Amino acid sequence: MPTRLTNFFLRTLREDPSDAEVASHKLLVRAGYIRRQAPGVFAWLPLGLRVKAKIERIVREEMEAAGAHEVHFPALLPKEPYELTNRWVEYGDALFRLQDRKGADYLLAPTHEEAFTLLVKDLYSSYKDLPLTIFQIQDKYRDEARPRAGLLRGREFTMKDAYSFDVTDAGLDASYQAQRDAYERIFTRLGLEYVIVKADAGAMGGSKSEEFLHPTPVGEDTFVRSAGGYAANVEAFETVVPEAVPFDGLPEALVLDSPNTPTIQTLVDLANERYPRPDGRAWTAADTLKNVVLALVHPDGNREVVVVGLPGDREVEMKRVEVAFAPAEVDAAGDADFARHPGLVKGYIGPWSPEGAVLGEESATGIRYLVDPRVADGTEWITGANLPEKHVFGLVAGRDFVADGVIEAADVRPGDPAPDGSGPVELARGMEIGHVFQLGRKYAEVLGLKVLDENGKLATVTMGSYGIGVTRILAIIAEDHHDDKGLVWPASVAPFDVHVVATGKDQAAFDAAEVIVAELEAAGREVLFDDRPKLSPGVKFADAELLGVPKIVIAGRGVADGVVEVWDRATGERTQVPLDGVVAALS
Amino acid sequence: MPTRLTNFFLRTLREDPSDAEVASHKLLVRAGYIRRQAPGVFAWLPLGLRVKAKIERIVREEMEAAGAHEVHFPALLPKEPYELTNRWVEYGDALFRLQDRKGADYLLAPTHEEAFTLLVKDLYSSYKDLPLTIFQIQDKYRDEARPRAGLLRGREFTMKDAYSFDVTDAGLDASYQAQRDAYERIFTRLGLEYVIVKADAGAMGGSKSEEFLHPTPVGEDTFVRSAGGYAANVEAFETVVPEAVPFDGLPEALVLDSPNTPTIQTLVDLANERYPRPDGRAWTAADTLKNVVLALVHPDGNREVVVVGLPGDREVEMKRVEVAFAPAEVDAAGDADFARHPGLVKGYIGPWSPEGAVLGEESATGIRYLVDPRVADGTEWITGANLPEKHVFGLVAGRDFVADGVIEAADVRPGDPAPDGSGPVELARGMEIGHVFQLGRKYAEVLGLKVLDENGKLATVTMGSYGIGVTRILAIIAEDHHDDKGLVWPASVAPFDVHVVATGKDQAAFDAAEVIVAELEAAGREVLFDDRPKLSPGVKFADAELLGVPKIVIAGRGVADGVVEVWDRATGERTQVPLDGVVAALS
Questions:
Q1: B535 touches chain A (CB under 8 A)
Q2: Which helix (H) or strand (E) holds A413?
Q3: Does B73 reach chain A within 8 Å, measured CB to CB?
Q4: Which chain A residues in 185-224 lie under 8 Å from chain B, judged by CB atoms?
Q5: Which of A81, A146, A350, B390 has its CA at a distance of 20 to 30 angstroms from the CA of residue B406?
Q6: From CA A86, how far away is CA A578, in angstroms rounded?
Q7: Which of residues 36-55 of A touch B (CB under 8 A)?
Q8: Are strands A551-555 and A498-502 parallel, antiparallel or unpaired?
Q9: CB pair distance less than 8 Å for A76 and B155
Q10: What ipTM was estimated for this complex?
Q11: Could you tell me which chain A residue has the CA closest to the CA of B97?
């Protein structure tokens, strides 16, 4: 049975919704695919539901081909397991929490690691039961601070989430690879360009993690890639560490006056003016060591002040710092923090060693001092002397101070070398469409998922977690496939295969269209039939362009001459086809 | 690709879950179809998900055949529309409520009348757009006070809910009938016995409402039916009103002493002893008029005392009273209520008229007095005289008192006449599996859903609401189709068509099973293949019986002689079939 526009539930709109910024949001609303219910919460109208079902089918088929079994969990889950893993707290405001009539705490699950872990614990007990990968396609909830861009960042969204369970690390590697391969097949079938980037596991914990990013200017993520094949998201980019330089022959550090040097540039200018290099090369910002004071708020509420040293020509990149310090939250240091640490001389902060102050009268001992990987042993720096209006020149890392640790805090820039030696990197915008994690034993440990191994001993299971954002993918496809007239669906996910339009006042055109629709349906094609009488061809064509079905058949005046037009939505090409040749032309 | 038990996610259990009372709950858990997550909240395991998908497919097909269009709403919805219809309050503790990070109120929708109404208001504006019926298959939430019986009464459950929109009452009748017909087809395809009973619309408001009840001893509802075809749920049963009797010639009422008559029986005994009827017939409880004091708590919090008069041989049935007084809640009258109304003489309460007290020194004016339909004009009663230790004999309804209204408060009993004249009724237990409502204009009125009618005037839309409990139906099918060994699925919803079991130590049996499985799959059958090595035939057969796939093929020792056994799970019949005849035998 074809879907007829005379009685289909559809209303196309001429105006963009006022809250829409990106094309997918505007067009999906205007073309009657989705409708907003609350910020970041949408209802699916018939056309949208059809596209979503097609994406889900592709995902499901590839999951099953990869040996994963489908289950379905409730969105409403009890608090306790999420308390054990600390996600009840760590998720912060992003978790929808509620109580039932008895006052018991529940949440709307953002992902289901805990529930899947407990299910396997509940049912399985032997290594013989493993490996196992189970998945669901399910509606998830995240109370985003700034839901935006329609389906691209919603508060309710459909995800395919899969979880793998293995006894051995090699098993986890294999399960991870199977999901990773399935993701490649899924995105290929969906015609979605993707880049696999090394990712930080973030709040999920675990060891190995890769993101599938779709390069797009509307993307929220910046990622790094080299022509030689390296790719990582900015958080996971690893700075190339310079070779250590021997201390022999390095001159001693000198403390020098440096009044009125509130910025790196003023410091460099002063250095070049008052203290030029003997060899005549100019000092640059890269010769200075900038020390940035940050405050960490640990999960237990404790506030810790840390100092991060990085070359003066680099900025601290908050995304990278946040990942490096997770699960602590990173805050700017305020007056109160400085007051508690009088050893921090604002504008003249320098490094120090665990043993105590290197320079300066007041020791800053007790504060962790961390450095960028470029601050390798033997590198010389102009930096604060921990004394008002004084800097130190020629301070040597590893000789004059020893940091408490190394941290990836600095921004990544085009031209930085890729860590795998594959050349300089460039930066690009992308949107996460999939994520594969090796969770390792973290969840199984906390929730007690153990099985008997081959030797009859209890072994903690190692897990993976694999997610694809179904509704986000739908929006990204719309983002990639549209023009100024409307949506242009690729055939794999189009709501219908063919959109047949009967136009004009001649009943013969409508009758011919009926025949063509019947023939197309008999040939297994899904047909949307614009059988609305009394509408101008212009209105019907505009709707067809807006809806974006890949092939449009127009039965109009040409029917009298035995022809219809076949219109390719993507190319705009229109071809005259004899009435009895439509099925062949579209197969 | 067949599903192989060697790597399927399944664990059958030998023990019933400790919290399970009914067979469907026990068996669905033991056979690995569902798993409890919280009270009334379940996860769906692969087998359960397959059965659920088959039920959903049947429901979807019949909805589409009835011209309904599928949409999908979020479970999470904002409060405001539910406030306008007052359901935010009326649902009481049964509504899951929550707040987002900004403190905005949300709910997990128990049904979606408000959201669908607003969607249509949002998109449609003309009578030409109607009629329209849209539906979804979606997970709903209700915070039941006593979730019970597994899926039969859960707090999260899957429903198909449909809503119709029409301009005219006749249109609504047609849309209602189309859904009602679709429900009949759905239940017939599912092999589910059903009785369509008149129902009260309850909290949904509206005018006409019918329930589809499945007769079952585990049912929560009592319904009434006659051999002549009448059926109603107890709340909707209408008492046959006796003909009014002319007052002419009826004797005057007499107030008589009646000490120590705390119960109807003691009153009847006293009447027969002290005040026998002149014609010698004995007084019975049916001759007395019992006056029951109730307290109503109105939605605005106001507490009202009412008195309900009904024949002394009947009991007040709370379900019926609650429906009659909805949306007020009904409470027992307490000492404080009596204290506020000193005219109510406990044990001797009688009727009165709107004009004031009929009898008694203290007037009970201001209290509504409602009567059972049997208290017709001209009927004579023994009842309280509103005076201590006194009753009145021969008090005539309509002559000596006029009630403020009629109420269906009395219980329904086997043998009561059906209101349509189709004979005496019997009572039976049933479980609601579907519900069709004519909501009328209530929601459209409150939410402002109007369209331009043929005359260009704004007309309020009239609506219907139609629900089927998908997960409940699954449980009811399991309830109906099981034996002491396990589940016995009907073919229409079975998770697989055929369960092939390879047994024994002979590789030939496993090889033969592989061939049969491949042939069955090639013939389009869905196959579950028990290819587990080293398990005893007894364990495999027990699992097959527990899982309940309709046809079981056993490839064992017979393979050497060229035969397998085909076992019908429902009848228990086992037939020997040649190896190359299995597909034919199962088609």
A1: no
A2: none
A3: yes
A4: none
A5: B390
A6: 67
A7: 37-38, 41-46, 49, 52
A8: parallel
A9: yes
A10: 0.85
A11: A98
Residue A361 pLDDT level (bands cut at 50, 70, 90): very low
Q: How far is B35 from chain A (nearest CA, A)?
A: 8
Q: Which residues of A touch B98 (CB under 8 A)?
A: 96-98, 108
Residue B485 lies in a domain: no
B43 and B162 housed in the same domain: yes
Q: Which of A151-155, A213-217, A349-353 has the lowest mean pLDDT?
A: A349-353
* CB distance B392 to B256 below 8 Å: yes
> Where in the sequence is the domain holding B319, given as residue range(s)?
254-406
Q: Which of residues 85-114 of A touch B (CB under 8 A)?
A: 93-94, 96-98, 100-101, 104, 106, 108
B15 Cβ under 8 Å from any chain A Cβ? no
Q: How far apart are CA B353 and CA B363, in angstroms?
A: 10
Same domain, B232 and B258: no
- Helix ranges restricted to H, A283-408: 318-325, 335-340
Residue A204 — pLDDT band, cuts 50, 70, 90? very low
Given B72, B122, B143, which is nearest A44 (Cβ)? B72
- What is the predicted pLDDT for the residue at A364? 54
Q: Which backbone phi and psi does A582 adopt, to 5 degrees? A: -70, -45
* Element (DSSP H or E) covering residue A585: helix A582-585
Q: Is A139 on the interface with B (CB under 8 A)?
A: yes
CATH of the domain at B502: 3.40.50.800
Q: Where is the domain boundary, A406, A434, A456?
A: A406
Window 358-387 of A: residues touching B by CB (8 A cutoff) are: none
Domain match, B79 and B215 both? yes
Give the residue, B364 or B14, on which the prediction is more confident: B14
Q: CB-based contacts of A471: which residues, under 8 Å, 6+ apart?
A: A52, A151, A154, A157, A158
The set of residues, in sequence order, having a beta carbon less than 8 Å from that of A281 and lying 6+ positions away, is none
In a 3-state reduction of DSSP, which class is residue B295? strand
Q: How far is B134 from chain A (nearest CA, A)?
A: 8
pLDDT reading at B362 higher than 60? no
CA–CA separation, A105 and A438 (whole Å): 29
3-state secondary structure of A65: helix
Q: Are B515 and B556 within one domain? A: yes
**Residue A31 amino acid letter:** A
CATH of the domain at A333: 3.90.960.10
Query: Which of A41, A76, A115 has its CB closest to that of B74?
Result: A41
Q: What is the largest distance, in Å, between two alpha-carbon atoms of chain B?
A: 99
B361 located within any domain: yes
Q: Which of A346, A378, A406 is the last residue of a domain?
A: A406
Cα-based torsion angle of the residue sequence A427, A429, A430, A435 in order, rounded to the nearest 10 degrees:
40
The reply to whether A453 falls in a domain is yes
A100 to chain B, closest Cα gap in Å: 7
- Chain A residue closest to B129 (CA)? A7
Domain harbouring A467, CATH code: 3.30.930.10
Residues A362 and A454 in one domain: no
What angle separates helix A23-30 from helix A470-480, to the nearest 10 degrees?
100
CA–CA separation, B329 and B165 (whole Å)? 31
- Binary contact (B115, A139; C-beta < 8 A): no
Task: Note whether A523 and A440 are same-domain residues.
Answer: no
pLDDT digits 0-9 by tens, A133-189: 999 999 999 999 888 788 888 899 999 999 999 999 999 999 999 999 999 999 999
Q: Do A69 and B141 touch (CB under 8 A)?
A: no
A449 min Cα distance to partner chain B (Å): 16
Q: Same structural domain for residues A214 and A68?
A: yes
Number of domains in chain A: 3
Q: A435-465 burial, b if ≥16 CB within 10 A, otherwise e?
A: bbbbbbbbbbeebebbbebeeeeebbbbbbb
Is B205 part of any domain? yes
